[in-house]
Design brief:
88 residues; mainly alpha
């Protein structure tokens, strides 16, 4: 019975779905090759590390952080300049 199904499958032309499935399987087979798999895994690992590093949270507050840092820096510089001017 399996022979008849295989013979029947070989005689019938491929439909669009069958050709899509066949090309998709070929693409998946390419993923098993080491020159494709290793860089893919490296990129996935770096993406996961980036997600759990908290960078997205920091990105939301980066403007406030830098504003606070440079505001404090400017007041320190103004204090130092006024001390220098006061000594003259």
């Amino acid at each position: 019975m399996n022979k008849t199904l295989k013979e029947k499958a070989n005689k019938e032309p491929l439909t669009a779905v069958d050709s899509f499935v066949k090309s998709f399987r070929n693409k998946l087979l390419h993923l098993k090759r080491p020159e494709v798999l290793k860089p893919f895994l490296i990129i996935m690992l770096l993406s996961i590390v980036q997600q759990f590093s908290g960078m997205s949270i920091l990105r939301a507050y980066v403007v406030k952080i830098f504003a606070k840092i440079f505001q404090d820096n400017q007041t320190d510089q103004l204090d130092q300049e006024s001390d220098i001017v006061g000594k003259l």
